[in-house]
Design brief:
Radius of gyration: 37 Å
Helix content: 55-70%
Strand content: 5-15%
CATH class of one domain: Alpha Beta
Structural class: alpha+beta
Number of strands: 12
Largest sheet: 5 strands, antiparallel
Distance between the termini: 36 Å
Length: 738
């Protein structure tokens, strides 16, 4: 649930030429100077500079100093006691610009934006281009943090253009860095790295250690997002080292959080692979330690956004560890903070984590409530993502246009010279052709008349021969067409007969109706015969029924052949070997399928995915096991899921015993067994997959309808989504209302 947090490179604006380090000597010197300074303008400059030096140590003190400077700027007096000179606009702009940066660091983006716009208006009126470029850059940073990417990119380009005009390297480096950040946020990692390394080179040339630290952090985050964790950790470690040398607490807190994120990704990865012990013993302590350290620093600095991120991460870690009380406390603290700052990405992830926590602890109503809130935040983010895609195209156009203009300026003189030479050459050619053209035309015309007569006779003979060849080829094509059509009829007849054979192994739907009054069966082969099949068997007293939906490797004739082998193996496992436990049935089926295919001299690796349920109506219980395909069931109006074992029925490198899941079933609840064909169908306005989420929502919306109406609704939804596109796979969905 952790968003990739990239540190935004704050602008080193013109009123403080020293690096943004928390050096004690600089702070002591400025403090001493402030006590003895009599001139108001000197006091204002000293307050602003001291605030700048304190911003990473104590942002609140930095804001207080700039506020005092701002008030003093309204009625400035000279040191000789003469009459006041009145309002000092330059000092007001500097103070507002500094306060905007400090409020940004505290996460108060709207107040920061208001102050920066005030500073921009004054700097533009004073024609202070250096300050204008710096302020535009920071307005872009704030707009990006608020999710307004079009405005952010407009500010960045304007800042870069003015900085290049006045040749201020630090602001040029800042603009390049921010453009790289925007590329990363818009999903273009390689382009982001290109601009990050350009920024790094410029800061190394200037010896700007704070700029170096920030861009190193950015590079680490890009590598992390690209899945290159080793490279990411190296750059994070380099950043943390420089930040500690500088005493930059803001950056130290960020890097502790970034390293915590990297460790947490490794926890996620280990859990997804089923290696829970490794995740909790090896990676969990490091992730929790770095997140806690980052949280403490960010709380002291008042950085709300990063505090919310750390709280969410810690809550998720405690959920993984089964410490649900601690997890609930941290996740709810994060939720309140996210709501106050309106961070949609954080809200979406935090609500999903809360929903998962309450589901694990059996609080299903609260789980559903937070699930819905997460969906609302996700939809809002989806609209922003569409805006980002449109912006990406606009950005590329702007860069291409700029490069074209620069290229044209360099070639103007060369093009002029080339045009003059071409004009001179053209005139010479005209003169030559004017003299010789007439004579040449006469010779050519005479030769043309004679040649046409010869060619006409030759072409007539060729056409007659070609006509004979075409007639023969036409007869040959017609004969071959008849042969192909006959073969196609024979093949189609054979496949249709195979379809009847395959249907013979499928249980008739009336048999399913006798076992389950409320049920539906949606079965749509992609071709005449299918790799998907459904299977059912009942105990003699009909107290217990085993039913399955299976997907064999491939579709069409190859898939149908595999389905026969797998169906026979299911029947043998239950009837011949007297196995009733779903997990043990799948273990035996795998053994029988492998045994069948190993009789071949070829290395056959075909098999099947399956969802198999055993329903005991007398006891009111359901036992289930799955190979890659899950089980969905409703409980109090909420769709629940039991995940399948991540292995197929067939030959695998590391086979494990299949797990049997058991649960009590209540009258009126529904279960769904299915293959992947429905969710994987391409269609819709963008030709994309339907996906399991939409499939689940369709089932949940129709859960209260009669069984046959559910089937009709699923068919209508499938056909509408598919449209004119081809069906990509076999479809098998079984719904049973208990």
């Amino acid at each position: 649930m952790r968003p990739l947090y990239r540190i935004i490179f704050l602008i080193a604006i013109c009123y403080n030429p020293s690096p943004i380090l928390a050096q004690k000597k600089i702070i002591d010197s400025l403090s001493a100077r402030l006590k003895v300074t009599l001139n108001d303008t000197d006091k204002i400059n000293t307050m602003v500079s001291l605030g700048w030096s304190l911003k990473y140590i104590n942002p609140d003190s930095a804001i207080a100093l700039n506020t005092m400077a701002l008030h003093l700027c309204e009625n400035v007096k000279l040191s000789d006691g003469k009459a006041p000179i009145g309002r000092w606009d330059k000092g007001i702009a500097d103070a507002c610009r500094g306060m905007g940066i400090f409020y940004d660091m505290k996460g108060d983006y709207h107040q920061a934006q208001k102050l920066e716009k005030q500073a921009l208006e004054i700097s533009e009126r004073l024609k202070d281009k250096k300050s204008v470029a710096a302020t535009l850059g920071h307005l872009g940073v704030i707009s990006q943090q608020l999710g307004d990417y079009p405005s952010a990119m407009d500010y960045y380009f304007k800042s870069l253009k003015i900085a290049e005009e006045v040749k201020v390297k630090v602001i040029i480096a800042t603009a390049l860095n921010n453009i790289g950040l925007a590329y990363w946020e818009l999903g273009d990692g390689p382009k982001a790295l290109e601009y990050d390394f350009r920024t790094l080179h410029m800061n190394e040339e200037m010896g700007n250690k704070n700029g170096i630290a920030n861009v190193l952090a950015n590079i680490g985050s890009v590598y992390k997002g690209l899945g290159k964790y080793k490279d990411a950790m190296e750059y994070y470690a380099m950043t943390l080292k420089v930040a500690e040398e500088l005493g930059n607490k803001y950056l130290i807190a960020m890097e502790l959080g970034n390293i915590g994120n990297a460790y947490m990704d490794q926890v996620d990865s280990a859990l997804e692979k089923g290696n829970k012990e490794f995740a909790l013993k090896e990676k969990f302590p490091q992730a929790l330690d770095y997140d806690m350290r980052s949280l403490q620093l960010n709380e002291r600095m008042g950085n709300k956004l990063e505090v919310a991120l750390r709280l969410s991460n810690i809550g998720l870690l405690y959920t993984y560890a089964g410490k649900y009380k601690e997890a609930e406390d941290y996740l709810n603290r994060a939720r309140k903070l996210n709501d106050s700052i309106g961070a949609l990405g954080n809200i979406r992830d935090n609500e999903a984590a809360l929903s998962n926590l309450y589901f694990k602890t059996g609080k299903y109503e609260q789980a559903l409530e937070h699930y819905k809130k997460g969906i609302n935040a996700r939809d809002s983010l989806f609209n922003q993502e569409n805006a980002k895609k449109n912006l990406r195209t606009t950005m590329q156009y702007d860069f291409d246009k700029k490069e074209a203009v620069v290229s044209a300026e360099h070639k103007v003189e060369l093009d002029k010279q080339k045009a003059m030479a071409e004009e001179k050459s053209r005139k010479q050619v005209i003169i030559i052709w004017a003299v010789g053209g007439g004579l040449l035309l006469l010779v050519v015309f005479s030769g043309f008349i004679y040649n046409r007569f010869r060619i006409t006779r030759k072409q007539k003979r060729i056409i007659e021969k070609q006509k004979e060849v075409v007639e023969k080829q036409k007869q040959l094509v017609e004969t071959q067409k008849e042969i192909v059509e006959e073969k196609n009829r024979e093949i189609t007849d054979s496949i249709n007969y195979a379809k009847r054979l395959q249907q013979a192994i499928l249980p008739p739907e009336r048999a399913i109706s006798e076992e389950f009054l409320g049920h539906f069966l949606l079965y749509r082969p992609k071709d005449i015969v299918a790799g998907d099949f459904y299977w059912m068997i009942s105990s003699p007293n009909r107290d217990e029924t085993i039913i399955a939906a299976a997907d064999c490797t491939g579709h069409g004739v190859p898939g149908a052949l595999v389905s026969v082998v797998c169906s026979n193996a299911l029947h043998r496992a239950v009837k011949e070997f007297k196995i009733a436990d779903p997990g043990q049935i799948l273990d035996k089926v795998r053994e029988l399928v492998i045994e069948t295919f190993e009789k071949s001299t070829s290395d056959v690796k075909d098999g099947m995915d399956i969802s198999l349920a055993s329903i005991n109506r007398r006891k009111g219980t359901l036992s289930w096991a799955g190979a890659n395909n899950p089980l969905w069931y409703t409980q109090k109006g909420v769709m629940m899921e039991i995940k399948a074992d991540k292995q197929a029925i067939g030959k695998t490198d590391d086979p494990k015993l299949f797990t049997t899941h058991s649960l009590k079933i209540q009258e009126g609840e529904s279960i769904y067994l299915f293959t992947d064909g429905y969710a994987d169908q391409f269609g819709g306005p963008k030709g994309k997959k339907f996906k399991y989420k939409a499939f689940q929502e369709t089932l949940l919306q129709t859960a209260s309808l009669p069984a046959n109406d559910i089937k009709v609704k699923l068919e209508e939804t499938f056909d509408e989504w598919k449209g004119s596109l081809e069906q990509v796979d076999d479809v098998c969905v079984i719904g049973i209302r208990l």
